[in-house]
Automatic annotation (TrEMBL):
MF-aspect GO terms: phosphorelay response regulator activity; transcription cis-regulatory region binding
Residues recorded as bearing 4-aspartylphosphate in the entry: 51
Keyword annotations: DNA-binding, Phosphoprotein, Transcription, Transcription regulation, Two-component regulatory system
CDD domains recorded: trans_reg_C
Organism this protein belongs to: Bradyrhizobium huanghuaihaiense
Domain OmpR/PhoB-type: 124-222
UniProt domain Response regulatory: residue ranges: 2-116
The protein's name: Cell cycle response regulator CtrA
Annotated region of DNA binding: 124-222
UniProt cross-references to Pfam families, sorted A to Z: Response_reg, Trans_reg_C
Listed PROSITE patterns: OMPR_PHOB, RESPONSE_REGULATORY
Length: 226
């Protein structure tokens, strides 16, 4: 899952990112309508959490445009502009939900789960193949009945591969799925993280293999018995 947070207060934005980390996936943060448009031009999002009053205008125009997109994300407006009239304008303008500030973190997460549930975008709690089970949100993987806590990027890589089990995911698609657009990625970063993940799964007796497809990407499948 990829989420976009449009929020011009850095501390609030960072806090929302930490909350959304419980749902597994990548979160991008922007602080203006202009930056939001640029992000939306470059990435497809499953969820957008939108502050209304931004330095360059009312983000309701972004919400309305998003709601009319063929691949619209689930949209929650999270703003201090929360009179009854504001809420009506936001919902009529295309938001799926509207929450005023200050907000309770668990309420925001509950509303996120609810709006994602409508189009069935929320990933299952557990992804599995063979004797490997990834518990989303906790970054915990069970391999042959033994629990391992993966690094966040390793869990995202494994989740992306499990979602496409027995299918190739290109290197470019994997990078887009697990890194934010402002992450600095060196040429061998992804390969190093895949290598660490592969070694951890093998060390604990995982019966799956991550195969590198030279010049293309990766594929996760059950290991061939020796």
């Amino acid at each position: 899952m990829r989420s976009l947070v449009i929020e011009d207060e850095p501390q609030i934005g960072a806090y929302i990112i930490r909350l959304l980390g419980q749902l597994h996936g990548v979160v991008d943060l922007v602080g203006s309508i202009a930056d939001a448009r640029q992000a939306l031009d470059n990435f497809k999002y499953d969820l957008a959490i939108v502050d209304r009053m931004l330095p360059d205008g009312d983000a309701l125009e972004v919400v309305t445009a998003l709601s009319q997109s063929p691949e619209r994300p689930a949209i929650i407006m999270l703003t201090s502009k929360d009179t009854k009239e504001d809420v009506v304008d936001g919902l009529n303008g295309g938001a799926d939900d509207y929450l005023g500030k200050p907000f309770e973190p668990q309420e925001l997460l509950a509303r996120v789960r609810a709006v994602l549930r409508r189009p069935r975008l929320l990933a299952p709690a557990v992804l599995s193949l063979g004797n490997v089970e990834l518990h989303l949100g906790s970054n915990e993987v069970v391999v042959a009945d033994r629990k391992i806590l993966l690094r966040r990027r390793e869990a995202l890589i494994l989740g992306a591969l499990l979602m496409r089990r027995d299918r190739v995911i290109t290197r470019a698609a994997l990078i887009e799925e697990i890194y934010g657009f402002d992450d600095e990625i060196e040429s061998n970063t992804l390969e190093a993280q895949v290598s660490r993940l592969r070694k951890k799964l093998a060390a604990f007796g995982g019966d799956v293999e991550i195969r590198s497809m030279r010049g293309i990407g990766y594929i996760l499948r059950l290991a061939t018995p020796r």
